[in-house]
Amino acid sequence: SFLIPANNHKTPHRYPCSTIVLSADHQYLALGSDGTISVWTINGELKSTKSISSNAGISQTLTAKERLEKGKDAQTRSQPKWITDCQIIPEFNKVVISTGDRELQFWDQTYCLSTSREVKPNDLPCTQISSLDSAPIKLNYGIPSPDELLLVYGDTEGCINILIFFAAREIFRLLTNVERRKGIPTISFDRFLDSYKCDYVRWKVHREWI
Hints:
Elements lengths: L16 E6 L5 E5 L3 E5 L5 E6 L12 H7 L12 E7 L4 E6 L3 E6 H5 L12 E5 L5 E10 L2 E8 L3 E7 L2 H8 L4 E2 L2 E5 H7 L2 E7 L6
Parallel strand pairs: 8-13
Antiparallel strand pairs: 1-2, 2-3, 3-4, 5-6, 6-7, 7-8, 9-10, 10-11, 11-14, 12-13
């Protein structure tokens, strides 16, 4: 039920939130477009704030489409990364995040929801798939079987994408061993499809963003 009148709270976010999701243990996770995470209790009390974005992205003063264009310009690389969406996947203890740099990042859920910030720059609890066909805009997921994960996302080219992990736990474990880029184990999308037990389906729906 809603509390009426609603209470107003100041937030730590300097830029608009890309999404707000509810965890299985009844905490709200708000993710800013610059990668700032805030965790709130069910009563609206702020528990923690942290950044889960490396400094490798796009100016937040631009519109969404301008960010994608500017993302091709190396001079913008000192600005925060543009985060487009996220989903909590408690079945695998992951928070999956999509970025305007055509990436999918898989963060440790415990780290994202905890109050601890202590982590070494080269030991970030995250793995990353880079160089997707296009920038994911909206994420969702499904669990067809205990060790199978379906990631579904709409992108900037008007396409629906389904990325299927047939052995998700093994894949997440193996991803931690790939080459690190800016402290995060990173693998290109093409190499990911060739190297792991997975499948990929993509089809065009229309010309606009999804």
